[in-house]
Structure to design on (112 residues):
């Protein structure tokens, strides 16, 4: 699996979700059968402090499709600003790899 960059925008106080399809470096999708996936937001890449952990749902295991999500109660607790995130895949054999990384822009929520 290739590591690729995917930047995201989160509105504070709103529910967030984004689907991703994980692909091999040759272009084929990754069969995620038996994989574990975790994803966290941090202030910067060297930080050990987790700002928030995404919920990760497998949408199509054999098609490499997952969804990252955060509820509004979590996004409302994240201050406006720039952050980073990554997605860690734990393969069935126990090997761990960062497969996606990117920036997170948290914007102030819109009021109606």
């Amino acid at each position: 699996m290739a590591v690729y960059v995917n930047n995201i925008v989160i509105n504070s106080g709103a529910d967030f979700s984004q689907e991703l399809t994980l692909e091999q470096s040759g272009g084929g999708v990754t069969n995620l059968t038996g994989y574990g996936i975790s994803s966290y937001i941090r202030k910067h890449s060297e930080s050990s402090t987790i700002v928030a952990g995404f919920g990760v749902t497998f949408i199509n295991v054999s098609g490499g499709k997952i969804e990252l999500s955060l509820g509004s109660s979590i996004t409302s607790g994240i201050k406006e600003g720039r952050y980073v995130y990554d997605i860690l895949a734990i393969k069935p054999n126990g090997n761990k790899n960062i497969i996606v990384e990117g920036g997170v822009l948290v914007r102030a929520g819109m009021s109606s």
Residues 72-75 form the longest helix (4 residues). Helices lie at 72-75.
